[in-house]
TrEMBL record:
One Pfam family named in its UniProt record: ACT
Catalytic activity: L-homoserine + NADP(+) = L-aspartate 4-semialdehyde + NADPH + H(+)
Known pathway: Amino-acid biosynthesis; L-threonine biosynthesis; L-threonine from L-aspartate: step 3/5; Amino-acid biosynthesis; L-methionine biosynthesis via de novo pathway; L-homoserine from L-aspartate: step 3/3
Protein family (similarity comment): Belongs to the homoserine dehydrogenase family.
ACT domain location: 367-441
Enzyme Commission number: 1.1.1.3
UniProt keyword terms in alphabetical order: Amino-acid biosynthesis, Methionine biosynthesis, NADP, Oxidoreductase, Threonine biosynthesis
Signal peptide segment: none
Cofactor(s) it depends on: a metal cation
InterPro entries, A to Z: ACT-like_dom_sf, ACT_dom, Asp/hSer_DH_NAD-bd, HDH, HDH_cat, HDH_CS, NAD(P)-bd_dom_sf
SUPFAM superfamilies, alphabetized: ACT-like (SSF55021), Glyceraldehyde-3-phosphate dehydrogenase-like, C-terminal domain (SSF55347), NAD(P)-binding Rossmann-fold domains (SSF51735)
Protein name (record): Homoserine dehydrogenase
Length: 444
């Protein structure tokens, strides 16, 4: 039996998929025929050889072609990717995609359509590139009550932060390298602003906690405000910067009768150098899963790039073919979008989790860098502002002084974010203060 694949998109990942399929390392892949490849331009020079009659700009035709069994969507962006996936499902095709942006927003629609059409939609490549994480969450880890998923799940930003830390190169230089290596999204704002990590944590949380996660409800901050100075000071204090995506159940307050809440967010974070995620560098990603009775598991590896991402896509293809050969359907991973996935094994009730907690209500330690006139009493004035809002300080240090401006760096104890923000607003009003260029959460 031959399985005919229709490939949509022949960019970084699409080319990697063709390269694997043209030199198959697994006998099952010899049953795969690349029947059609949808591209934007027929004349563009390619790194892989595709018979010209199989290249087409008519992507609609591929997803409705009765000869095609499996559609692999590697276009990126929301449209036409979403419509093509839905049309492929409608025509009874199995679908593989790496498109987290589409799944995070339209997962419910897509998985409902797939359930109706009795086809599978697989997306291991969409989260953490080459690291197998969706399958483990769906199967090997299912016996647990999952409590937390913390991830470094954007390769571009982890690469940029690592390069700025280790090589001392600028943000722009590091981003240009990440783009040249094929890590970044077509619009790298999605990486830099944290939107791509938010798409991925929406998918992970939906799967881990078995409930729908509205993408817009995820507070999201990117890495643009992290300067080389902050990286250096953080290092001196034993911390490193990471763009963390967090999803964790947060027990309800004793006074509240409401449901427990799902704390879900993306933001730059200072982690102690001893933290299990602190040593994840370069384009690598890592996902830390905490559950009961499991404890903690960390899966790490290459999170972006041609080879690793294509490896995940072709892994899904193998899973699909193995199932098709026995007539079985691969269980769809994301039925948690509508809350159908049980929270734990054994048919327990789905959790009553309210999704999203405003950042102001959360607690963290904070790193703050203040620029102020180098005058007697300025540290005292800053300390008083923090004290006025019940923000206790672990450390307040004057660092370097440039043209009579001192850099004062503060590390708070664990405080409510709203209190810290009120203190910061008051500090900004001090006549000696010129600005607060650095304000970041510290998690341990
Ligand atoms: N590059 C990476 O490291 C990773 C990428 N992904 C995802 O994989 C997907 C593909 O990413 P890349 O290969 O990096 O992107 P890319 O931009 O290198 O490739 C996309 C290709 O699709 C083509 N395309 C886009 N819209 C089209 C249309 N309407 N008609 C015909 N062709 C069209 C583009 O011309 C381009 O050649 C995206 O969803 C991305 O988020 C996921 C994990 C890692
Ligand atoms: N742009 C993404 C690609 C993989 O998902 C990233 O940098 O992680
Ligand atoms: Na993956």
């Amino acid at each position: 039996m031959v399985y005919r694949v229709g490939l949509l998109g022949l960019g970084t990942v699409g080319t990697g998929v063709v390269q694997i399929l043209q030199r198959p390392g697994h006998p099952l892949l010899r049953a795969v025929d690349i029947g059609a490849v949808g591209v934007r331009s027929l004349d563009k020079p390619r790194e892989v050889q595709i018979p010209p009659e199989r290249l087409t700009t008519d992507l609609e035709r591929i997803v409705s072609d009765p000869e095609i069994d499996i559609v692999i969507e590697l276009l990126g962006g929301l449209e036409p990717a979403r419509s093509l996936i839905l049309k492929a499902i409608d025509h009874g095709k199995q679908v593989i995609t790496a498109n987290k942006a589409v799944i995070a927003r339209y997962g419910a629609e897509i998985f409902q359509a797939a359930a109706q059409a009795k086809v599978s939609v697989l997306l291991e490549a969409a989260v953490a590139g080459g690291i197998p994480i969706l399958q483990p969450l769906q199967q090997s880890l299912r016996a647990n009550h999952l409590q937390a998923v913390w991830g470094i799940i954007n390769g571009t930003t982890n690469f940029i932060l690592s390069q700025m830390t280790q090589e001392g190169i600028s943000f722009e230089e590091a981003l240009a390298i990440a783009q040249a290596r094929g890590y970044a999204e077509a619009d790298p704002s999605a990486d830099v602003e944290g939107w791509d990590a938010a798409d991925k944590i929406a998918i992970l949380a939906s799967l881990a906690f078995g409930l729908p996660v509205e993408r817009e409800h995820i507070p999201c901050e990117g890495i643009r405000d992290i300067s080389a100075t902050d990286i250096r000071y953080a290092r001196e204090w034993g911390f490193t910067f990471k763009l963390l995506a967090i999803a964790q159940s947060s027990p309800r307050a004793a006074s509240s009768a409401g449901p427990s809440r799902l704390d879900i967010r993306v933001h730059p974070t200072l982690l102690p150098l001893t933290h299990p995620l602190a040593s994840i560098n370069g384009v690598d990603n890592a996902v830390l899963v905490q559950g009961d009775p499991l404890g903690q598991v960390v899966l790490s590896g290459p999170g972006a790039g041609r080879g690793p991402t294509a490896s995940a896509v072709v892994g899904d293809l193998l899973t699909l073919i193995a199932h098709l050969q026995t007539g079985a359907q691969v269980p769809n991973p994301l039925l948690g979008f509508p809350p159908l996935l049980p929270f734990s094994a054994g048919g327990a009730e789905p959790p009553q989790l309210q999704v999203g907690i405003p950042l102001a209500e959360l607690e963290a330690e904070f790193y703050v860098r203040v620029l102020a006139q180098d005058q007697p009493g300025v540290i005292g004035a800053i300390g008083t502002c923090f004290g006025n809002h019940r923000v206790s300080l672990e450390s307040i240090t004057q660092k370097e002084c440039h043209r009579e401006q001192a850099e004062i760096v503060i590390l708070t104890h664990t405080v409510r974010e709203a209190d810290c923000q009120r203190a910061i607003a008051e500090i900004r009003q001090l006549p000696q203060v010129a600005g607060i260029p650095g304000l970041f959460r510290v998690l341990r």
